[in-house]
Amino acid sequence: MTTILAVDDEPDSLDFLRAALTQESFEFVGTSSAAEALELVGTRKPQLMIVDVMMPGMTGFELCARLRMREDTREMPIIVYSAFPMRHSNAGLYQRAFVKPADLEELLHAIRSLLTS
Question: Which CATH number fits domain 3-84: 1.10.10.10, 1.10.10.410, 3.90.550.10, 3.40.50.2300?
Fold first, then answer.
């Protein structure tokens, strides 16, 4: 089963992603903390991550940068899913970006595409 780790400090966003992804038969792992996400990638070994940008403590961009420095997550696909406007250059940090609330079918299409590429 494909594991997707979502990181978002908004419980409603995690609930939305949990419902959508489990309905599509993905294993969903969610956390509200970027620091906890760094721990979870080592134990849960997700095949893809969905990351919010504006979070307390470590931002989603900082999390992405740290993931790209790790050997075990350097190539993992990352989707940014945030209310934050995507004016930031991705500089190789993530593959796709969606502004909340994203169209569910477009988000699922991006997930499937990244997992098969």
Answer: 3.40.50.2300
Tokens at residue 78, please?
Answer: 């990352």
Domain boundaries, given as residue ranges, for the chain: 3-84
- Tell me the β-bridge partners of 5: 29, 49
Burial profile 53-71: b = 16 or more Cβ within 10 angstroms, e = fewer: bebeebbbbebbebbbeee
Q: Report pTM.
A: 0.92
Residue type, 81: Y
pLDDT in tens, 6-25: 999 999 999 999 999 999 99
Single-letter residue type at 14: L
pLDDT tens track for 33-49: 999 999 999 899 999 99
Q: What DSSP character marks residue 42? A: H
Tell me how far the alpha carbon of residue 102 is from its chain's centroid. 13
List of E strands, the chain: 3-7, 27-31, 48-51, 78-82, 96-99
